[in-house]
From TrEMBL:
One Pfam assignment: Cytochrome_CBB3
Domain annotation Cytochrome b/b6 C-terminal region profile: ranges: 27-154
Oligomeric and partner information: The main subunits of the menaquinol:cytochrome c complex are a Rieske-type iron-sulfur protein (QcrA), a cytochrome b (QcrB) and a cytochrome c (QcrC).
Assigned protein family: Belongs to the cytochrome b family.
One Gene Ontology MF term: heme binding
GO CC list: membrane
Name of protein: Menaquinol:cytochrome c reductase cytochrome c subunit
Function: Component of the menaquinol:cytochrome c reductase complex.
Residues of the Cytochrome c domain: 178-253
Membrane topology per record: Multi-pass membrane protein
Localization per record: Membrane
Amino acid sequence: MHRGKGMKFVGDSRVPAERKPNIPKDYSEFPGKTEAFWPNFLLKEWIVGSVFLIGFLILTAAHPSPLERVADPTDTGYIPLPDWYFLFLYQLLKYTYASGPYNVIGAFIMPGLAFGALLLAPFIDRGPERRPQKRPFATGFMLLALAAIIFLTWESVVTHDWEAAKAQGQIVAEAEVDTESEGYLIYQENGCINCHGDNLAGGAAAPSLVDTGLTPEEIANIAVNGQGGMPAGLFKGTDEELEKLSTFISELESK
């Protein structure tokens, strides 16, 4: 080296001259506390996931979902019901402060705040402790969220009209309806289609008019005086139109 340059070379024997392949760390010093992600931990995850997947497939094969009638967009009496994992949100929208003019609060703001807090929880509570009692914020928030979900889901199940839901999804007999006939036109003009549907198969709000087994006189009497949930005075036509309508309905038979 030349004087005045101020430069020195330092050698360190701890830095290997050759790169060695990645060797998994020896975790024998910490038995039962930690393990290598690959393949130990990941293999266990795959095994547990496979067991649950096989069990789910067996369950769906043993108890298949029941078939329901084809969806009818003209059925105004249909009561929608989401899947079980959304029942708590469905129940939330039934309350006054989360429905009607406050629907935005129940549909967006309240769920958004809850899920936003869930996403921020790891950043707010950054303690190294893993025991629940040592992490009051995370534990309290998760218990509160779990209690709210269970309560709302339970309320949705016990307050829902399951008999009406079963009736609205039931496969009913259908008939070949002549939509150009006088009877059908009278059926439309008097608003019967709003409850009984365009194919007269009925819905949650009204029964099917196919295969009623009633005489034209009995049908005319129901159309004028009502029956069950159908009030009187809905038919506004003439006696001749009432006769044509009742005859049309009494002759409807399933395919």
